[in-house]
Write a structure and sequence with these properties.
Helices cover 46% and strands 6% of the residues. Strands 1-2 form a two-stranded parallel sheet. With 67 residues, the chain is mainly α.
């Protein structure tokens, strides 16, 4: 997404569509700070991915979310 203008256009369109339909838009697979910054600029609501945490067992979820 951060190296190809076509990819940015697709992501932007999906975010705009979701927001137009009054949906919360959540980006999955965010791995770099650059991707996170771009998504913020595009007004994406939430992000998840390796940038924030590696996968953890379900029982560790509450502790992760409380941080």
């Amino acid at each position: 997404m951060t190296t190809n203008a076509d990819d940015v256009a697709i992501v932007s369109t999906v975010i705009t569509l979701g927001r137009t339909l009054n949906l919360k838009v959540i980006a999955e697979g965010v791995e770099t700070e650059e991707q996170s910054k771009c998504l913020r600029l595009l007004k994406c609501d939430q992000f998840q991915g390796y940038l924030f945490s590696k996968p953890v067992p379900a029982e560790q979820g509450p502790a992760l979310l409380s941080r």
